[in-house]
Amino acid sequence: MTALGWLAIGVVGVAFPRRFTLISRVLFPLGAAFGLVLALLALNAIGSDAQVRILALGLPDLPFHLRLDALSAFFLFLLGVTGAGISIYAAGYLRKGEGTAPGLHCLLYHLFLFSMAFVMLADDGYAFMVAWETMALSSFFLVTSEHRHAEIRRAGYLYLLIAHIGAVGILLSFGVMAGSAGDYTFDAMRDFSTLGIWPTIAFLLALFGFGAKAGLLPLHVWLPEAHPAAPSPVSAMMSGVMLKTAIYGLLRVAFDLLHAQLWWWGVLLLVIGLGSALFGVIFAAVQTDMKRLLAYSSIENIGLIAVGCGLALVFKSFLLPNLAALALTATLYHCLNHAFFKSLLFLCTGSVLHATGERNLGKLGGLIHRMPWVAWLALVGVLASAGLPPLNGFVSEWLLLQSFLFTSGLPHGYLNMLLPVVAGAIALIAALAGFAMVKFFGIVFLGQPREEKLSAAHDAGRLERIGLLWLAAGCVLLGILPNLVITLLDPVTRQLVGGGLAATAASHGWWLLAPISEDRASYSPAIFLGSIAVFMPLVFWLVRRRFHGRLTRVAPWDCGFPLQTSRMQDTAEGFGQPIRRIFSPFLRRSGEHPSPFDVTPRYSSRVEDPFWYWLYLPIARLVAYGTRLIAFLQQVRIAIYLLYSFITLLVLLVVPRG
Amino acid sequence: MNVYALFAQLLELVIALLLAPLLTGWVNQCRAWLQNRSAPPLLQTYYTLSKLFHKDVLIAHNASSLFRAAPYIIFACMALASAIVPTLSTELIFAPAADAIALVGLFALARVFIALAGMDVGTSFGSMGSRREMLVGFLAEPALLMVFFTASLISQSTSLSTIVDTLAHSEFAIYPSLAFAGVAFTMVSLAENARVPIDNPTTHLELTMIHEAMILEYSGRHLALIEWASSLKLFAYSCLGLALFFPFGIPATAEPAALSFALAILVVKLAMGGAALALIETLNAKLRIFRAPEFLGTAFLLAVLAMLVHLLLEAGP
Fold first, then answer.
1. Would you call A542 an interface residue with chain B, using a CB distance cutoff of 8 Å?
2. Is A623 touching B (CB cutoff 8 A)?
């Protein structure tokens, strides 16, 4: 098993904690190779029957059950293929004397990969929780690898806290599904048909638990803190892959372990997802830190994925397997796409961070001249993330919008009116994502350098480039070859909702995507890319031939005001101003605006997450109040504590008797 | 796929490329008449393009290769867009390549590139224009998609050819929803094509510009391509509006006789549409930029209303 290979790499890494060259030049590329092998194995396993294995580890009466079916194989494929790119990048990214010792970092990183693979393979509640907690802990230590900064420790603590609150939800959900029989294997949960309100409780607990990991509203607050704190390959891994383990868990519980889906589960998930997506994208557009911007953009994408899951649940509850398959295909496709483009963008920010030491958008600019590789590859990620054809982000959004167009046929009085309108909100989210991404790319890579030191920036190294190229190529290929991906997803949708799109997709050739029928809707990214790629050089050649190619470099137009410096360019705050103004009811803004008579004018503008003030701080105050109330127990006399122990003992002796 | 479809496709592309500047010139001429000015010649746009193509290109010292590639990308996007819209026939080779949603995506792609090019040199006006363009873009795009969705729900398809076929050639039916959608589409087209009341194509006052601010640094052949692409965009949007709301006369075949008839009808319809655009521009004043959300929000609500009207009144049990 390849996953064990990662564990072995980690152990080797920790065995030679000071051999930097060994770790960065051998072990991390080896990890990337293992990722590729894992992806190939998973690709092979998607189409074949489920394999079950029982390990001789674990509890005495509950050994670890492993199971490799289409759903886990798809997510393992995602892990392997994205992980390969991130690992090879990490090999070039690792620097001496930065953060944790390289050996320890290597162990934690590979333990993280291993635990994610194990989460997807686990087939009983116990193994799942062990893997889930290993994943949370290893990623916590990776996030806090720069633990000497107080803000990073704080971010790590927040992450750990929310991860564990979520884990409690998942644990309780497994408990409900195992029922009174107490058999925690997933097989037993599948067979055990609970009645009444219990499936709903299990679903809600799972939604809470996995939602905390995925970053759904209102448990999203750790994302914009933890992602900037972590080293960039770790951010990429967390955002690109770890969030998907939560989606995997949600799909596993909602579609596989529970049977009788109720339509309002889907609607609930859809509403939460829609809220997260809208919230995420608005906040992404007003951020001034590039990694926070990407973190909010992750919340948006996870929201879209949740919308797709919710829609699939709605369709499944009305027994429309083919439409459910369409929505689920869009969802899983978007998982894969997001893994590629968001990892790519996070890795690009890593290169920018190493080259300039800046995360603040207001101090970057003009890097396309100094870092052409990173800039052009980031452009691919930006276009994919903005959902533009012919790249991959567009295909999944297209599929999602198509599935919304079918909701007018739902046999339910209100849903068939309201759900089609949601498509308009999806379009708004996609368009706002374009705004946020133009801001990200334009401020970081275009314009003039806003600081002196930026002129010393250097491009990414060779290994880093390979990693970025791998992910960018994935973005393009996933965009050009949608039918291949749909064929790949067919066994997964058949397993979960009992319908698939491969039959119709295959009948139109590789170049034309027509998931339902050609009359109904079709899209051909290959023709898009092909005609733009033919048309551009043709026009270029014609213009050069017919006219001329003369070009002179001059100073830009300064409107008759020659005293401009590069600091007078538009800033990230300035670019986000329309969003701040239009969506001001949703934002919590503060800032100082100087009057014309100020001697020392200062301008500042801050946008804060309102959920802190609406939800988290009241809860924190409540907890603090509660702890003060019970603090009277804490008398500083040993006799009192002995009395407590005695009373506890008495209670424990009496209660089981009774 | 047959020879006629190929011929129709090529003809449509060539017609779009050649006629688009004429439409811009016609709108300018009508507007001048309405505003009591002496009108520029009908072919003025062609003269301007030719002059720009002959001029040298001046670009800023720190302009990157993205700045130089953007005009070609935008031009290619707009040419592809005008090839996709069914103007002369619904039997086109490119018709299956893109449906209404993909067309919106194509416009968005061009918009993102022009906005990035505006930010490339790093002047304040370029970046300001870019953010305003993206603002108008994200407000207009949902409304445009809702208009398309209404039409898609009527024809059970998002393919533009099928939509036009359904609306033009099925049994005659009146769709009240399309009236709302038509108003919404008109508002969106005004915004997307940088027309009054959102933007003024003739302005050179820097603080009020949107589109012009972004392309302030362009000159020579680059500017010519961008201007031509803007004309193509106006042409594509006009044809789209005509195809969705006045689809009469667009044949379902690609026979030469049908094509020439369709071309004649198209020219008449475009002339009337252009005159209507000039009238709208003359009767309205430009809005402040932060009134744009209200304008486009109204368009979005009208489009949503159109969809609800369709779902409530027209969708039979």
1. no
2. no
